[in-house]
Automatic annotation (TrEMBL):
This protein's name: ABC transporter permease subunit
Membrane protein topology class: Multi-pass membrane protein
Gene3D superfamilies: MetI-like
Membrane-spanning ranges: 15-38, 78-98, 110-136, 156-176, 188-215, 252-272
Lineage: Bacteria, Bacillati, Actinomycetota, Actinomycetes, Propionibacteriales
Organism: Nocardioides glacieisoli
Gene Ontology CC: one annotated term: plasma membrane
Listed GO biological process terms: transmembrane transport
Top-rank taxon: Bacteria
PROSITE patterns: ABC_TM1
Length: 293
């Protein structure tokens, strides 16, 4: 009896070495910077032993310094608000665009793609000038600071969410939603109980992308900031990393930035695998029942 299990495709050795070299090239500087947050001295280039003094316990440590904690708190707040708003708006826009018929579809698609294809610096400058000099509602109602930063980050990230969810909708088609309508479900019930459940993996990926873009964003956040209370982690690192008084507490701050992104990505990945695995199991059960009927 032959083994029907498909064999894995092996990379050519030079290609595998190139991939690993690229991974190490990207990881080594990050891991090195994270390691020096546990240095026993102020040096960020020479190792003098292990210590957690730059994390807590001294006035210059990460969690005992008001500037560090303010930047950390503000970045997490921006990321949370941007993730929620971008995910909700992106999902609704993706559903709306797929249902638009006629001449209005192409202009809407073009407008949604503008933040993606526009360089981030140009988008940041445009948002800054719009919110500063255009005295017409809604621009006049948005002041520089947290609100403007959230608006700017949502403007930048929502297009990516739309693209991801529209791709999922294109794969699913409209057959399942139509079948639910034929079986007596109303428009809202078919949308929530059928289509949204199938879109959940794409929604999770969109939320993950939004969080990663938000917490790592520098250009838009910098242009739309107001004062020291709206300084994010990337802004603080940029302003202080080259200073002569910089300590490994900055490395600790960067470590929190990296770890928070990795945790969110890992959770989203696990939830995505759970959702797609459940979907594949339900599909297998449905096909089995159909064949046996």
């Amino acid at each position: 009896m032959t083994n029907s299990k498909p064999k894995g495709v092996r990379f050519p050795r030079p290609l595998a070495l190139l991939v690993w070299a690229y991974i190490l090239w990207n990881l080594l500087p990050v891991v090195s910077a994270m390691a020096f947050s546990f240095n026993a001295s102020r040096s960020r280039s020479e190792w003098h032993g292990f210590s957690t003094q730059w994390w807590s316990g001294t006035p210059l440590s990460l969690f005992d310094n008001e500037e560090y904690t303010s930047a950390l708190t503000h970045s997490l707040e921006l990321a949370a608000m941007t993730t929620v708003l971008s995910t909700v708006l992106g999902t609704l826009l993706a559903l709306a665009v797929t249902r638009i018929r006629g001449i209005g579809r192409r202009p809407v698609n073009f407008i949604l793609m503008i933040p993606i294809v526009t360089p981030e610096l140009i988008l940041a400058v445009g948002l800054y000038l719009s919110l500063t000099f255009i005295m017409v509602w809604p621009f006049s109602a948005i002041e520089l600071g947290t609100t403007a930063q959230v608006v700017g980050q949502v403007t930048y990230t929502v297009g990516f969410v739309v693209v991801i969810i529209r791709g999922r909708i294109a794969v699913l088609g409209d057959g399942l939603e139509a079948a639910a309508r034929d079986l007596g479900a109303g428009p809202i019930a078919a949308l929530v109980l059928v289509l949204f459940r199938l879109l959940l993996p794409a929604v999770l990926v969109g939320a993950m992308i939004s969080f990663a873009f938000s917490i790592d964003n520098f250009v838009i956040t910098q242009y739309l900031s107001a004062d020291s209370s709206t300084v994010s982690i990337p802004m603080y690192l940029y302003e202080n990393a080259r200073g002569g008084n910089a300590t490994p507490a900055l490395n600790a701050l960067a470590t929190v930035l990296v770890l928070s992104t990795l945790v969110v990505v890992a959770l989203a990945s696990l939830m995505y695998r759970w959702a797609t695995r459940r979907e594949s199991v339900e599909s297998h059960i449905t096909s089995t029942v159909a064949l046996s009927a």
